[in-house]
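Example record

The entry below shows one chain as it appears in the dataset: sequence first, then structure tokens.
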Amino acid sequence: MGQWRPLAGPSRQVALEILLDGPLSRAELSRRVGLSPGSLTRLTKPMVESGLLVEVEGGPTDARVGRPSQPLDLDATAHHFIGIKLTGDSAIGVLTTLRAEVLASVERPIPDPTPSAVAELVLELTDALAVQVPGGTPITGLGISLGGRVADGFEVRWAPYLNWVDVKFGELLAAHTDIPVVIANDLTSLTEATHWFGAGRNSDRFILVTIGAGVGYGLVVHNRTVDSPDVTLGLIGHYPLVPDGPLCDRGHHGCALSLLTVRAVTEQVGTALGRPVGYDEALDLAAKGDPAAVAVVGRAGRALGKLIAAAANFTLPELVVLGGEGIRLAEVAHDDLLAGLHADRHPSAAELPMVLQPADFSEWARGAAVVAIQTFVLGTE
């Protein structure tokens, strides 16, 4: 397959359109990139000859020549990427194609959170996934995501779940692998994956709300992810939702963190029952009608609806995507979520389409792979 990095201008736009939405007919490509059919043919000819693009069968018949047209596509299996999500206690890795299709996954605990030990673990996971590439072709890129602040796609400035400060994690990895490495914030990575290859692909504006160990918020406006160093601070976690709610670790009453995280739900249900409970057990109890669990989970559901309403009222999205390992709450407390949402929305406001992502860490790992794909395709972090 031809290389992406030298591409610029219309050539890169054509390649990106096909990557994200292909196969596409030449007529559709002409419309999308604003080129005449003749100009598009001249532009794509060397891209086909180099192997970057391929002609595929199955297009509609072209009446002018009396034969089926040949849409343009690319071979998504010509390049493979690895994405690894680091939590405070585990590393989850996936192997993907150029279109972020997951081919294999692996998970390992993190017994030692020191940077050198985690780097060694990341390389072990990389090796375990690399051997599963069909045909044994080399890995094109490795993406790492974690909760915290990352600088220049290479240095971890702050990772609270791992207790890291100013760690040159990219250097630790680059010293032992030839695979290009990029490191990113996990929420930014998941937002990019949702934007490029997920539920938000065709939305000009959408929001992503995640609940799990924390509460996260991603925003895409005019088909671009809104990024800022402040994304890493989890600011939405301290948004007030219930005036007389429980306290968070910073003394806020009824903020998102005090109500919506996995820890908040399990601790509050456990306290009400007088015994420890796991997250799924707490939700199962609520689904079965246990009064104590219903009270906690119902309040959390209404709080989630209020949080979505606030985000939507400010940013006017076309779509709401809900994700994170704790997002099953949105299913169990669905009616409460809608009650909280509608209470804080104008009666005439448009209904918000909502999509739930799978509630597992492989989606976050796939997000890390997407950042590596973007770095390869666009040539930038």
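Notes for this example: Residues 207 and 315 are 8 Å apart (CA to CA). The longest strand covers residues 90-97.
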